[in-house]
Amino acid sequence: MKILHVTAECYPVAKVGGLGDVAGALPKYQKNLGHEAMLIMPMYKTPFLDKHQWDVVHKDKARLGDYQFNFTVIREKQQSLGFDLYLLDINGLLDRPKVYGYSDDPQRFIAFQTAAATWLQSWKSPPDIVHCHDYHTGLLPFFFKYGYGFRKLENVPTVLTVHNAEYQGWLDWSHSQWLPAFDEWKSGLLEWNKTINPLASAIKNAWAVTTVSPSYLTELRYQSNGLEALFEYEKGKCSGILNGIDADLWNPETDVLIDNHFNVKTVTAGKFAAKKAVAANFGLNPDKPLFTFIGRLVGEKAADLLPDSLAAFLREQNGKANVIVLGSGEPEIEAGLTGLKGYFPGVYDFYKGYSEKLSHELYAGADFLLMPSRVEPCGLNQMYALRYGTVPMVRSVGGLKDTITDIGDNGNGLRFNQASVGDILMTLNRAMELYQQPKKLEALRKKMMSIDHSWEKTVSQYIDLYQSLISRGQPAVPKT
């Protein structure tokens, strides 16, 4: 089976969140099963670009409204990610250091999708499946069906995976000229709530829709930033497939980004050695329990609750616990977390920004990982934590609910119900009680590390879905 993934992110090329991790792993594991899995993404100016060798495989032209642009598709020679990686270059539009955050992001991703479809139209034999990820690639199913320049692709099965429905790519109809020529009788298939909505369009036009956990799919039918009725209407073609993690990359026994390696048998001594290394870097006492938060500092992650929650906890513990926060995001949250450094020296620190190496070191060295998310489609951090014997403390939402069961129910972590300072503080105190029971904590760590969340376990579900679409041969006709 020939599978092409289309995405805005892919680790280690360019990553902002979990989408990048998934895109960097899923094609590799599909290829391991004997399929021809490939991925195309924009060519950003990241260090990965300069460190690898490339072949030019296609040059062409496309249009963004009145603007005609040239584009180039390059392929990485070494196949270092374990699959064919293609980058699409549009000079001046995609070749920038950041993935998102530019005022012309709508034009950038429309141009990327138009060029990607133009490239696919040139293939002698199109892919068996085109797998689109989030709204940045959500217009492709519509282009394939109703774009006048892409007739060769109209029967190519498309799958949309919703990694995060909060972001939908809304676009005013006054900008419809940016889209390639299409059958205007079908314009309703682009629209939701009187705007062009790429995510909604993908849900309507893709042959199948998946979410990154079963619980998230259920939640989207009553909380999806305005798309609740659409998810309810299209539920027949939707399924929830829990993400996996790259068990080769996230392995405390072989992780190249940490210095102190360990396995399930040596977890207690190994984690303490890893914690000592982290504590030395941050001026903390390794004999105390170490709590961490790793992620984007945004309301979706309930990071706005961190300053008050951590202040109350550290004040209550009076020097008996350490906390390190790693992340960046909303300026007010960053300011609040920075301010805590002056009040709790020697037991608290905040690393503003993101460091892949430090994140691995924290998973290895921390005792507890806090995830109080308001929205968590799947969550990978809690699976990384399990792999490294770090106890997840999670809110019962989305994929967190699917992967973590409370230790009170003979589970593998600590769960709480509300994204509130009170529930967070209660759970932090439960963690302190657990830390005072070393035998129970060691048994829990060994249990956590034995859980299999690797991609091998779930990738076959995608293959089964693809095969069902290919066997069907024709997509269902969407209603406007």
Automatic annotation (TrEMBL):
Residues forming the Starch synthase catalytic domain are 2-231
Pathway(s) the chain acts in: Glycan biosynthesis; glycogen biosynthesis
Q: What does the record give as the function of this protein?
A: Synthesizes alpha-1,4-glucan chains using ADP-glucose.
So where does this one cross the membrane? none
Q: What class of enzyme is it?
A: transferase
Which SUPFAM superfamilies does this UniProt record tie to the protein? UDP-Glycosyltransferase/glycogen phosphorylase
Keyword Glycosyltransferase assigned to the entry: answer is yes
Molecular-function GO terms, alphabetical: alpha-1,4-glucan glucosyltransferase (ADP-glucose donor) activity; alpha-1,4-glucan glucosyltransferase (UDP-glucose donor) activity
Task: Tell me the InterPro entries matching this sequence.
Answer: Glyco_trans_1 (IPR001296), GS/SS (IPR011835), Starch_synth_cat_dom (IPR013534)
Gene from which this protein is expressed: glgA
In what residue span(s) does the Glycosyl transferase family domain sit?
Answer: 281-442
Q: Cite the EC number.
A: 2.4.1.21
Protein's name in the database: Glycogen synthase
What is a biological process (GO) this protein takes part in? Answer: glycogen biosynthetic process
Binding positions for ADP-alpha-D-glucose?
K15
Chemical reaction(s) catalysed: [(1->4)-alpha-D-glucosyl](n) + ADP-alpha-D-glucose = [(1->4)-alpha-D-glucosyl](n+1) + ADP + H(+)
The alphabetical list of record keywords is: Glycogen biosynthesis, Glycosyltransferase, Transferase
> Belongs to which family?
Belongs to the glycosyltransferase 1 family. Bacterial/plant glycogen synthase subfamily.
Presence of the UniProt keyword Nucleus in the record: no
